[in-house]
Amino acid sequence: MTALEEISFNIHAGEIVGLVGPSGSGKSTALHVVGGLLEPIEGTVDVLGTDLTELSSSQRTRLRRDHIGFIFQQFHLLPALSARDNVALPLVERGVGRRERQQRATELLEQVGLGDRLSHRPGELSGGEQQRVAIARALVTDPELVLADEPTGELDTETGAQVLELLVDVAEDQTVLVATHDERAIDVTDRVLRLLDGEITTDE
Amino acid sequence: MAEKRSLQSRERPRVHRLRRWLGLFRVSVGRLASQLRRLPRQTAVTVALVALTIALLIIVTGISAGLAVDSTADDEADIRVLPPGGGTLSSVVDVESARFGSVHETAASIDQRDDVAYATPVLTEVIQIRTEGSDEFETVLAMGVIPPEEPATIEGVSTASLEPGDPHFANGTYDGARTGEIVLTDSAANGLNASSGNNLEVTSPTPSASLRQERNNQSRSAIYTATTVEETDSNDLTGELPLVMLHLSELQSITGADDDDLADQVLVETESGTSTAAAESAAADTYPTATIQSGSESDFGSIRSDDFALATSLVALVVAILICSLFVATSSALTIDRDRRTIAVLAAVGFSVRSRLAIVAITTLSLTLAGAVAGVVLGIVGISITNHVATATMAPRPIATLRPAFVPYAIGVALLAGVLALPYPLYLVARTNVVAELGR
């Protein structure tokens, strides 16, 4: 089964782009390819001036560590860690000291309005709060590119809208690619790519 | 922000690596704590099984060490120093055989060495003995020794009931207080119809010794009290002979061997775990013409016993490593199966394969370590229970020994088992399909 075929798009630095389409249209696959989690069978994937198809798996992991932040539909926070430790997690691999990790994570959590939830574990947070923690985690390394896969998929309408607003606000210096089937996401994006059956049908 | 990055890039790589490893360690500990909360039963079962295996290893090793100690105890001494032409029972076989002189002084000089547990001269003489009030003397073999501070077994007879040292010797004046203590073996006690606490009259059958005692205005006989009746192993060399044990100088005084402070041999026991080579060399320096037998030469039984103990502990070691590895590998694999999403998230946020493997390895080894520590505690309790049960039912003394070295040994074995268990869980981590797990 082919998830994506003959797909080609460019995103400029600082743009917020929506990848919109129904379930199964290939949005998540496109996001995983851009994030270096999947390798295309054919073609090239140029991210920040680097062709990912030329990189080994470990080089793509390093690129993710240094330049890309991920936000997932199911938040994917580690249940064992507090909100602050979850946010600080990507800094561990970068060899940042504990004090600096905590300071940076605290700043980010305050930015997303969770300054009073630092020591809470994911199980003690609401869905909207968990997604805000996930946004803070994606931004803690100050990446150039943020990839959000259905960030409002698990949230109610109002919370989803708030989370999208927050993402756009705090990621003002980043390039953001949001995969969603939520048509309201269009309101916060600079550009929308519509996907259907693995092909881009509209670039508006 | 650019300034911050440039600062980071200037940091020394070693500090960077250290911080990363400390961070990974913290994440691993957090993961372990979470595992304890989410899967308390599975975690407890793993720790308990590792603990049980390690405890059994400690108990079996303790019993093996006990067997080894026993074999050494039965062998009485690591080194036996004999005069040229002398022998263990020379006084019986040949009264004219060579003896050592000034044995108190020379034995003391060997005894003072750090690697020597004790050194005692042994004089064996035939004496006559009877219970107080009895008409008939019995002829028995008497063994004169200097009882060490820590009770020892000499020719199958324990010195535990004799006062340590040799007070009657009094620096060679032989006018110190007599202890009046004598240990009877069961065969001697049966012949005398005596038991512990009975008074016994002891005298020398040699006319010259009796005449000498009369010349010195000493009584021909001395009164002793049986401190205990020792059950001796009938397989021992001395088991078939009526044998008694008393302080060396007191036996020398009775038999006339006090003129030159004589003894038939000197026994040397080295400290546990030390080589006998240094003590052998010291004995050779003291007695250049003497025959020196080490324990291994004098008793094949001890080799057999030691080999048996070694084999038992080796089997326990191999079984413990195998069982521990299997438990830990199975438990760790089950945990990873439930934790694949966490591993996928780590990959997505930029954790390298090496870091992901390290987190799983640290978690697994920490779990093993927890089991090992619990196992050591359990093992120590197990040895106490084993000894209690053994002494209460069949053994005359504790059968298992506990040594401080058991603790690092057991923990080392558990960690080795943990390391051997790692390949399977690490293989599962490396094979985790990140995209599939994130999309689940």
From TrEMBL, chain A:
Pfam families (UniProt xref): ABC_tran (PF00005)
GO CC terms: membrane protein complex; plasma membrane
Domain ABC transporter: from-to ranges: 1-204
Alphabetical UniProt keywords: ATP-binding, Nucleotide-binding, Transport
GO MF assignments: ATP binding; ATP hydrolysis activity; transmembrane transporter activity
PROSITE patterns per record: ABC_TRANSPORTER_1, ABC_TRANSPORTER_2
Presence of the UniProt keyword Cytoplasm in the record: no
Record has Nucleus as a keyword: no
Database matches in InterPro entries: AAA+_ATPase, ABC_transporter-like_ATP-bd, ABC_transporter-like_CS, ABC_transpr_LolD-like, MacB-like_ATP-bd, P-loop_NTPase
Name used for this protein in its record: ABC transporter
Organism, as annotated: Natrinema versiforme JCM 10478
